[in-house]
């Protein structure tokens, strides 16, 4: 079982500057590497009021420069907004800089503001996404290619240099709906299940993904992103992490994220109502048991832990450093 951290980078209402937050994330990544984490991932949004990170590959490069074994990745880059050739070349460059430590995670996106910033109609996102994945694969192949799609017409391209990782860096797809899970099975090297889906829904999504992957002759890789927190006591974990994650969930509910459409009122978004079978939090022994329960139920090989929430700004850097150390010293070794 492998573990990574997902770092939301935003300018929160607490007053920290974004440059300070990036310094904190680099320090958190360095500690994560020291205590046994495998990776650190970053996401992408545009026009968020809190300045949610618009360029995750740049921060991933900074983290790679301050670490030596930690994998760095995106979860997710909003692929429909990007020129796929340019993105493929950026990933090749980071793969060379990091000596083979980049994982590209891509997703459709769901916020209208993201698409408006790049003059991309939301209705085009699936077609642009699927063409983008195909083009990136061609770019990483080291072979000349042409591509003729609805959105991209490319003649006789030969992208150099080749990636450091051979035959190519891992390409994961993040999704929280059955069509997205099927798409991951058809096109990706791994499936990242969204962090706020409950256990029953996650099991269904993973089954859908596995079926599609097997049909395509792909070896399934299940990555679970989870909202997770560890502390010396469960009461402390709930006190420190509960308000932060519920603030984020209310934001997702207001923005129509699919995992929250069954919730009728914002008042229903409480730790008591949503904590069970969504969050993994508590003292170390509880967290170990929960990771094992999720792993056995879903067949997950990899967990990404979302410790900080962009839309609340917390928990604080100091608290996150404590949690990373406790995960590394008492949870990860016990999970095997």
Commentary on this structure:
- This protein has 336 residues and is α/β, with parallel strands linked by helices.
- It has helices spanning 18-35, 56-65, 84-97, 112-117, 125-140, 178-187, 199-215, 234-254, 271-274, 284-298, 317-335, and strands at 2-6, 39-42, 71-74, 77-78, 102-107, 145-148, 153-157, 171-175, 190-193, 222-230, 280-282, 302-306.
- Helix 6 packs parallel to helix 7.
- The chain is globular and about 60 Å long.
- 46% of the residues are buried.
Mean pLDDT, rounded to whole units?
94
Say which CATH homologous superfamily is assigned.
Luciferase-like domain
Mass-distribution shape:
globular
Helical content, roughly? 40-55%
Structural class: alpha/beta
Beta-strand percent range = 15-25%
Strand runs, count: 12
Radius of gyration: 19 Å
What is the CA-CA span between the terminal residues? 6 Å
Q: Return the domain count.
A: 1
Low-confidence stretches: none
Spatial order of the strands forming the largest sheet: 1-2-3-5-8-9-10-12
List the helices and strands and how they pair.
Elements: E1 2-6, H1 18-35, E2 39-42, H2 56-65, E3 71-74, E4 77-78, H3 84-97, E5 102-107, H4 112-117, H5 125-140, E6 145-148, E7 153-157, E8 171-175, H6 178-187, E9 190-193, H7 199-215, E10 222-230, H8 234-254, H9 271-274, E11 280-282, H10 284-298, E12 302-306, H11 317-335
Parallel strand pairs: 1-2, 1-12, 2-3, 3-5, 4-5, 5-8, 8-9, 9-10, 10-11, 10-12
Antiparallel strand pairs: 6-7
